[in-house]
Amino acid sequence: MCGETAAVRETSQLVRIEKHRVSGGIAALTFAAEEEEVGRGSRPLVFVVHGLLSRKERHIELCLALAEAGYLACTLDARHHGERATPEATTFLGGGLGTEFLMTFAEVVLGTVADLGTLADYFGRDRYGLVGHSMGGYIALKTAVTDPRAAVIVSISGNPDWAAVPDGVTLPPVALEMARAESPLSYPDRFWPRPLLLLHGDADLMVPIHGHRALFSALQPRYTKDLTRLSLVEYPGGGHEFIPDMAERAVAWMRRFLLP
């Protein structure tokens, strides 16, 4: 495999890794433990979505951990990333926080949300879990408010407040209104009773924690029937990096709420 990967730990089970090319050019990998007593079709599906300018191979260790826990883990290249990258989009996404970046970023996020729905159809699932880091967290939160099949969500270092424009960036009023209309934070009533775990370093300078905090505050009154289904974990002094504890908490959250 190519792409950004870390050293992969040894697993306690054999894990089958398969590559898929789905309608629309979606490139994905699946991970499933090979256990005779568990048919692949019965495994709960969990998507794992990478961050900006990364690719599907980024979170192989998390996918292996999910497979060992009994899930069919699926990681895909987001729009304009990995095998789907285009020179123009890569230039815009790596060129700083200008208008071209924001418009391309929005295309990536919204397009990948649609791709998750296509993949859920491809695997024949009417419910699935979703873990996203950074840009993947944006995608996870948007999917939560648009696809009822997204049953359990983990957003790591994501942001539901799309109307919070970065300092130094000016958007036309029409674009700002569109960002507010698409923002997951604008739809707090669409989350309950979906189990939602938010993980974030409180010193993250790339994606500040305030969006997760705002969503958590907005959702608390809506989760009073069962507050165990909503959690915000802050890492004191933590930045934007993806750390092992985040992976462990994501797997534990799925094991708690996404059952066969």
What does this structure look like?
By secondary structure, the protein is α/β, with parallel strands linked by helices. The chain has a single domain (20-257), classed as Rossmann fold (3-Layer(aba) Sandwich), CATH 3.40.50. 33% of the residues lie in helices and 20% in strands. It is built from seven helices and eight strands. The chain has an eight-stranded mixed β-sheet with strand order 1-2-4-3-5-6-7-8, sandwiched between helices. The longest helix has 24 residues, at 99-122. The radius of gyration is 17 Å and the shape is globular. The two termini are 30 Å apart.
Keyword list:
about 20% strand; 8 strands; disordered N terminus; 8-stranded mixed β-sheet; 7 helices; alpha/beta; Rossmann fold; single chain; about 35% helix; about 260 residues
Largest sheet: 8 strands, mixed
| SS elements, strand count | 8
The CATH first-level class comes to: Alpha Beta
Distance between the termini: 30 Å
Rg, alpha carbons: 17 Å
Strand order of the largest sheet: 1-2-4-3-5-6-7-8
Beta-strand residue fraction: 15-25%
Label the structural class: alpha/beta
The assembly state of the depicted protein chains is single chain
Going by CATH, the homologous superfamily would be Alpha/Beta hydrolase fold, catalytic domain
Note the run of SSEs as H and E.
EEEHEHHEHEHEHEH
Q: Can you tell me the CATH topology?
A: Rossmann fold
Q: Residue-averaged pLDDT, rounded?
A: 89
Helical segment count: 7
Q: Note poorly predicted spans.
A: 1-9, 36-40
CATH architecture: 3-Layer(aba) Sandwich
- Counted up, domains total 1
- The residue fraction in helices comes out at 25-40%
Shape: globular
